[in-house]
Amino acid sequence: MAFSYWESNEWLEDVDLLVVGGGIVGLSAAFRAREMHPEWRILVVEADPFGGGGSSRNAGFTCFGSATELMQDRKTLGDHAALELVRQRWNGLQKLRATFGDLALGHQASGSIELFPSFGQTTAPSPSELADLNSWIAPALGVPDAFANVPVQNFSQLAEEAGTTAVVSRLEGMLDTGKMNRAFRTRAYALGIDVLHGMRVHALRCESDNVSVTVGVGPDRQTEITARRVIVATNAFGRELLGKCDVQPAINHVLVTEPMDDFDFPHTVHMDAGYLYARPVGNRMLIGGGRHWGDDDSTTVKKLKDTLHALWPATKNAGISHQWTGVLGVGENRSPIVREVQPQVVAAVRLGGMGVAIGMEIGRLAAEKFTTN
Ligand SMILES: Cc1cc2nc3c(=O)[nH]c(=O)nc-3n(C[C@H](O)[C@H](O)[C@H](O)COP(=O)(O)OP(=O)(O)OC[C@H]3O[C@@H](n4cnc5c(N)ncnc54)[C@H](O)[C@@H]3O)c2cc1C
Question: What pTM, to 2 d.p., does this model score?
Fold first, then answer.
């Protein structure tokens, strides 16, 4: 079945910028392009009805990294590059909140805690390690005391298995991922950016001054369109269109309990250097991650449930009401890739586990790669 004249003429022709992928990065790139070029026809093509990547399936942490995760980043990236990453996450979070407002995002300044349970894979940083971390991170966050050691007994609802010391990070928070996605889409429409859901880009071919793009809805309804420029913001799926590129998909499992009477736990929780995370969703608890265990899917889900029950005894009597997977884009290190891969094609992929924070910054950088009209 071919596209109609009306479909083609109204949506698919004369495209100045085509963005592939309607997640945080793709839509943020479209917003920035609109700011710089009010006259451009901008089309975002997204394969999934909701935007099926990390942006619609994440845990909603507004975070810049737990203490142990950042300690690892300093080792793998070096102090300078790791600090730059924190700065981008922090700036991205401020931009996200300033653009949409906390109400539209369902944002809560909850603070986070990092736990070191007896069965976990990390140990609490010593006071001198924490002091060193605080002085290293202060220029990015503008405060001298981002992290602090606090006794676990200060937090209600947690079991003894949670260990004795937690690291509190008061600048972190959480949002409602569904509301955030709605806010992104509402803004796109308000800015006159076309967003087509359920349409997939199958191939890109660079020609002398534009890009020929094969788009389609299912196998029988495909067409070639031309765009003057393309941003590939497909995160974990970057390789499908870009070929050689250091990004691999990594599955994360997420579980949410049924509501629990009298359950009130206010903070987000990091464990195992960011590989394991939990947060409240009203009077439910969410837990996710676990890919560092290296287990099959059903073992990972079982271990997530066991962890939830061991740390929050109240959850033992609550069933799991929602369970899903989401895909992270990971690679050699935690820095996203933003690069012009052809004269008219920019890649903005490999967002890893903190794309809610860094996504708007990466989208902006991608749009700014096109220096000419
Ligand atoms: C389970 C989970 C929990 C997470 N929790 C957090 C968190 O709490 N805090 C945080 O900061 N980050 C979190 N993240 C990471 C964060 O969600 C991502 O880094 C971020 O959403 C990436 O945004 P993106 O726009 O780059 O990619 P995505 O949101 O993955 O968007 C890429 C889009 O491209 C589309 N696409 C792919 N190929 C094509 C194609 N050929 N044609 C058209 N469309 C295509 C996909 O459908 C997808 O919607 C989590 C991720 C997961 C998976």
Answer: 0.96
